[in-house]
TrEMBL record, chain A:
<feature type="transmembrane region" description="Helical">
    <location>
        <begin position="180"/>
        <end position="200"/>
    </location>
</feature>
<feature type="transmembrane region" description="Helical">
    <location>
        <begin position="102"/>
        <end position="125"/>
    </location>
</feature>
<keyword id="KW-1133">Transmembrane helix</keyword>
<dbReference type="GO" id="GO:0005886">
    <property type="term" value="C:plasma membrane"/>
</dbReference>
<comment type="similarity">
    <text>Belongs to the binding-protein-dependent transport system permease family.</text>
</comment>
<feature type="domain" description="ABC transmembrane type-1">
    <location>
        <begin position="98"/>
        <end position="303"/>
    </location>
</feature>
<feature type="transmembrane region" description="Helical">
    <location>
        <begin position="238"/>
        <end position="264"/>
    </location>
</feature>
<feature type="transmembrane region" description="Helical">
    <location>
        <begin position="12"/>
        <end position="30"/>
    </location>
</feature>
<dbReference type="GO" id="GO:0071916">
    <property type="term" value="F:dipeptide transmembrane transporter activity"/>
</dbReference>
<dbReference type="Pfam" id="PF00528">
    <property type="entry name" value="BPD_transp_1"/>
</dbReference>
<keyword id="KW-0813">Transport</keyword>
<keyword id="KW-0812">Transmembrane</keyword>
<feature type="transmembrane region" description="Helical">
    <location>
        <begin position="284"/>
        <end position="309"/>
    </location>
</feature>
<feature type="transmembrane region" description="Helical">
    <location>
        <begin position="137"/>
        <end position="160"/>
    </location>
</feature>
<keyword id="KW-1003">Cell membrane</keyword>
<dbReference type="InterPro" id="IPR045621">
    <property type="entry name" value="BPD_transp_1_N"/>
</dbReference>
<protein>
    <submittedName>
        <fullName>ABC transporter permease</fullName>
    </submittedName>
</protein>
Length: 318, 510, 274
């Protein structure tokens, strides 16, 4: 166990360094994109001297490296700074958006992960049965369709035809939990359809991959039931690929849902990032990216730790 | 020449845009009610800062909370808003606006001449970062004279009061010559209750509003709904009462939805393909002519705009403009004439690249693709280059030799030509310089005789059409829709979508 | 004997998958000869109904829908196949290398990939785009670069479990080279998840193209591709119109078929006898 703690500590340390590098990379990647905040805000009708004036006011006339250093010093002190475009405090801008994003991600994950695991195991258990085929066709069809397509189909069925759920998920801070959930159901359901297939397929594949292993054969010869074999013997050894894919999909639920946000008008972090990239509002881009990057690093770390814990050979390397 | 204020104002009225489609229902306004509006604009970078206003969303919000000196009336004429009246000197170089009395801001401060001057000065001067800096650049002096605000211009401009209907020139409360827009306090019919940029604005009625026959809703919720499909479903399922920017493809389907009225406004918005006339082969007027004959305008209107628009005649003046030249022959798709012009240029065929992105206008890439097909029959090979949306205005427009562009248009002919066709204009996106045109442009601006002015503008349209470097295949109508729970006047403004975006104070809940 | 078993055991789903995939491949190759019209030819008005002349009607610009679907398949399949191959070439080899060597190489590669993955895709894609431009090779490269990080993680996670097995230890002690261990010892034991991943990644490319068209990228007009075709007409779905369903159905059918075949390969790769 000690080695695990050591590993986690080391990985967290590396993660921090990673965040630093990512923030540096993103800063200069966005810098390298054509146009800056001054031009983006003034838009098509920007005139050079107006842009120059605005640039000066936004402090964009200083060298990029100086601005990055400045930003970094403030972040280390816990100050995310102000939006270049609006002058608003970034924490005020981001906190409600991020809590919305988390709310949606947690709702979607709470449904999709158990569903995917159960379906995957059941499909492995009854492979090539009608059940397996139905699940395969269903999940693959949902994964083959773009997110916006799934969103529109759900809106067509549940908002336009049946009129049970609202098509706009524009939740507001003063809404009660009940209404919040009601408005989150359709976007969450779309996300579930998007991520279930990948996780379910990997669970099924990872388990089937092990079913020919000698120890499984042995367990079977002992007269164990199929379900028990899968649950007790195959699953623990299939954890690594499953957890990797689950972590990938959870990270996706946090960072990749901008299309679903747009379709359902859900005020999450994704739309904020798109807007701030478009307006080249670097402090906001940086702050959102740091949140995303931290989510990725933490989830990947968790996946790796789970994989190691589940495999004694990795836990005690020779 | 003698000129009094009345004739000038009539001239201004006649300048305006005539609405094309009056709404069907005749009704009288009701006070009260809560209205929800889904708008296809708005982003997290929106703010109250009038220097940076850039979209319809913030424009509608501005018309809710603020007033300007002048206002474009539903019939297209210009009328005073915070200015009770206005007058010009004989050479149209000095303009005086008399401020309305008894107007107060939301915070209780009463409106003074100083507020107006500070609000306009905010856009002037070296350090101004305003998007409308150039509009007030010709103002040499701005001063108070009792209840009057006096402008001295460097040269005469008969259309000058039109500028102050622009939403950037919102009047904010000022102290020591500096305006305070941080709280969104204005003199408008609505106060800000909540504003989350890129998400929503909640407005509540200002009980002390100085206009007696405006601002009927109790509360307005302006939602940013960027996805066209989401806007339409929200409207058809009754979640919102008004939706703008309807995708033309779904226009017919929306119109057939029960309880929904589709509204079409023919305004000044037009889509163009601008060539760099300094570069070969676009520097040859015959090549430009050939390209103009090689586009099938009606097909573009039918397929890209789904019929919600009209064909353009390669000049930017809209049909509803009083100076529109009706005698100018409409240019049609004509492969023979295109080939003839190519021959005149000494070419059998020509190969050019057209750069487009949907950032230029919705369907720009498709429009370019159709253009490619129709031009192929004329010996013109158009290579369509799809450019990324991100950075389009910076990297592509006015950078690549031939690009797709959208123009929302300007309320006056002078404003439009001065912005994009004058030789020294910054947005002269065809880099075009025609001596005669530029002479006419400055002459017409200061000309107060309506007949002479008309003649000049007619000639200018002909010059742009035949010599200019911009293909203007179509004028796009604004399409929006409202539920029958919302009433609108018989005549709605056509200078922008949704009653000139002044629906916030002109419409009501039935 | 193996061959009889093979013939007897090919499941109906796999057969169906094989047939569909072959038909797609055949159509893709034969498109220029069988398509009723030119790829970009405007043949009539927009959204014309199904008729004898235009079997699937016309699209928003009045081009024959069947022709567009055929050419779209040809273009998209080619791009998807190339992109997925490159994705796997990069992701798989680096993943194997990381898992088998371990130590600092593993840590370095894994952390670099963590970082690449933690940069939001929007920024990543925009940046790559500003580097490479908007040509089709650039498109393929962008998709491969983004996707290979995912493949890397999966391969590394699966392979590091295998790399500590006794038989790999034995091979190491035997003094086998790195390449031998990667190819002969580890790779055969992780083929199942790899194949499963290949089946999905291949289909994700269609979605990636459609997602890129959100940024105004994607395939240059007038070339057709299924991802953009779905996107262009998506707004009609909420009115119950079926036009957008045609390219979507083409993608879905292919996805299901490819994965039926993948399932069968998975089954064979796992060496199961039932």
């Amino acid at each position: 166990m000690k080695s695990i703690l050591k590993l986690v500590a080391m990985r967290l340390g590396l993660g921090l360094i990673g965040l630093l590098i990512v923030s540096f990379g993103i800063f200069f990647a966005v810098e390298a994109l054509p146009g800056d905040a001054a031009e983006a805000i003034l838009g098509q009708s920007a005139e050079p001297e107006t842009v120059a004036a605005l640039r000066k006011e936004m402090n964009l006339d200083r060298p990029a490296l100086v601005r990055y250093g400045d930003w970094l010093i403030h972040v280390v002190q816990g100050d995310l700074g102000r939006s270049v475009a609006t002058g608003r405090d970034i924490s005020v801008l981001i906190v409600p958006r991020f809590s919305n994003t988390l709310f949606l991600a947690v709702t979607a994950a709470a449904i999709s992960v158990p569903v995917a695991l159960v379906l995957g195991m059941a499909a492995a258990l009854w492979r090539y049965s009608t059940f397996d085929r139905a699940v395969t066709v269903g999940t693959l069809t949902s994964v083959a369709l773009p997110e916006f397509f799934i969103g529109y189909v759900l809106i067509f069925i549940f908002s336009v035809k049946l009129a049970v759920f609202p098509s706009l998920s524009s939740i507001a801070p003063d809404m009660g939990m009940g209404e919040r959930l009601l408005r989150t159901i359709l976007p969450a359901f779309s996300l579930v359809l998007v991520v279930v297939a990948h996780m379910m397929r990997m669970t099924r594949a990872a388990i089937i991959n092990l079913l020919a292993a000698p120890y499984i054969e042995m367990a079977r010869l002992k007269g164990m039931s199929n379900a028990r074999v899968i649950f007790r013997h195959a699953l623990p050894n299939a954890v690594a690929p499953i957890v990797t894919v689950v972590a990938l999909n959870l990270a996706y639920l946090i960072t990749g849902v901008v299309v679903v946000e747009v379709v359902f008008v859900y005020p999450g972090l994704g739309q904020l990032l798109v807007d701030s990239v478009a307006s080249r509002d670097l402090p906001v881009v940086q702050a959102s990216c740091l949140i995303f990057a931290a989510a990725y690093i933490l989830l990947n770390l968790t996946a790796d730790v789970v994989a190691i814990v589940s495999n004694p050979r990795l836990l005690h390397p020779r | 020449m003698q000129m009094n204020r009345r004739t000038l104002l009539q001239g201004a009225a006649a300048l305006g845009l005539l609405p094309v489609l009056p709404t069907a229902a005749k009704a009288t306004p009701n006070a009260g009610g809560h209205v929800r509006v889904a708008m296809g604009h708005g982003g997290t970078s929106d703010s109250y800062d009038p220097a940076t206003y850039a979209n319809n969303y913030i424009q509608a919000q501005t018309y809710g909370r603020n007033n300007m000196l002048t206002e474009i009336a539903p019939d297209g004429s210009l009328r005073g808003e915070l200015a009770e009246n206005y007058e010009a000197s004989e050479d149209a170089k000095t303009w005086r606006f008399r401020l309305r009395k008894g107007v107060t801001f939301h915070n209780g401060k009463s409106l003074s001449v100083d507020d107006v001057i500070a609000s306009i000065n905010y856009h002037r001067g070296e350090d101004s970062k305003s998007a409308v800096k150039s509009l007030v650049a010709p103002v040499v002096d701005l001063r108070a004279d009792g209840d009057w605000v006096v402008f001295e211009l460097e040269s005469g401009n008969a259309d000058f009061p039109y500028l102050f209907a622009d939403y950037h020139f919102s009047v904010f409360p000022a102290e020591d010559g500096k305006i305070d827009f941080s709280q969104g306090v204005g003199t408008g019919g609505y106060k800000i209750k909540a504003f989350e940029p890129g998400v929503r604005t909640e407005l509540v009625r200002n009980p002390d509003y100085w206009k007696s026959d405006a601002a009927f809703f109790d509360e307005i919720e302006l939602l940013t709904v960027l996805d066209a499909t989401a806007r339409v479903t929200a409207l058809t399922t009754g979640e919102v009462d008004i939706a703008d920017k309807i995708d033309p493809k779904t226009g017919g389907l929306v119109a057939r939805s029960p309880g929904v009225t589709l509204m079409e406004t023919a305004g000044t918005q037009h889509f163009t393909f601008a060539m760099d006339t300094r570069q070969a082969p676009f520097n040859d007027v015959n090549v430009r002519q050939a390209l103009k004959y090689g586009i099938n305008r009606q097909e573009l209107v039918d397929k890209i705009l789904s019929g919600y628009g009209t064909v353009g005649n390669d000049h930017p003046i809209s049909r509803s403009n009083v100076f529109f030249n009706h005698d100018l022959e409409q240019r049609e798709y004509d492969p023979d004439r295109a080939k003839y012009h190519l021959q005149q240029a000494g070419l059998d065929s020509v190969s050019v690249e057209l750069h487009a992105a949907d950032a230029a206008f919705t369907g720009a890439v498709d429009a370019a693709t159709l253009y490619r097909e129709s031009a192929a029959a004329c010996g013109i090979d158009i290579g369509v280059v799809r450019e990324p949306n991100d950075g389009y205005w910076k990297n592509v427009w006015m950078q690549k030799p031939w690009t797709a562009v959208y123009w929302s248009g300007r309320p006056t002919a002078d404003w439009m030509f001065t912005t994009a066709y004058a030789a020294d204009a910054k947005f002269n996106d065809s880099f075009w310089g025609n001596e005669r045109f530029n002479q006419l442009l400055s002459a017409a601006r200061a000309e107060l005789d309506q007949t002479k002015r008309t003649e000049m503008y007619h000639e200018m349209q002909a010059i742009v059409r035949d010599d200019g470097g911009v293909v203007i295949p179509m004028f796009a109508n604004y399409i929006s829709a409202r539920r029958d729970t919302v009433g609108a006047p018989e005549t709605v403004g056509s200078n922008f979508d949704l009653d000139g975006l002044r629906f916030v104070e002109r419409w009501w809940k039935t | 004997m193996i061959s009889t078993l093979f013939r007897a055991k090919i499941p109906k789903t796999a057969l169906f998958g094989l047939v569909v995939v072959s038909v797609y491949a055949l159509l893709a190759v034969a498109t220029p000869w069988i398509a009723p019209f030119r790829e970009s030819e405007v043949v009539g008005g927009a959204y014309m109904p199904w008729s004898a002349l235009h079997v699937l009607g016309t699209d928003n610009l009045g081009r024959d829908m069947l022709t567009r679907i055929l050419y779209g398949g040809r273009n998209t399949l080619g791009i998807a196949f190339t992109a997925t191959m490159i994705t796997f070439l990069i992701g798989m080899w680096l993943g194997l290398l990381a898992a088998v060597t371990g130590g600092w190489i593993d840590q370095m590669l894994a952390r670099i990939v963590d970082m690449m993955m933690s940069v939001p895709q929007l920024i990543f894609k925009l940046f790559l785009l500003s580097l490479f431009g908007t040509s089709i090779p650039a498109l393929i490269l962008i998709i491969a670069a983004v996707d290979s990080t995912r493949v890397f993680r999966l391969v590394r996670a699966t392979a590091s479990g295998v790399a500590v097995m006794e038989y790999v230890e034995v091979a190491r002690l035997r003094g086998e080279g790195l390449a031998w261990i990667m190819i002969r010892e580890v790779l055969p034991n992780i083929t199942a998840p790899l194949i499963a991943e290949f089946g999905l990644r291949f289909c994700f490319v269609f979605l990636a193209i459609s997602a890129l068209s959100f940024l105004g990228l994607g395939i240059q007009p007038p070339m057709a591709d299924w991802g953009s075709m779905v996107r262009d007409n998506a707004t009609l779905i909420t009115f119950g119109d079926i036009t957008p369903l045609i390219p979507a159905a083409a993608i879905a059918l292919l996805t299901v078929s490819v994965n039926f075949v993948v399932d069968w390969m998975l089954h064979r790769a796992s060496g199961m006898k039932d």
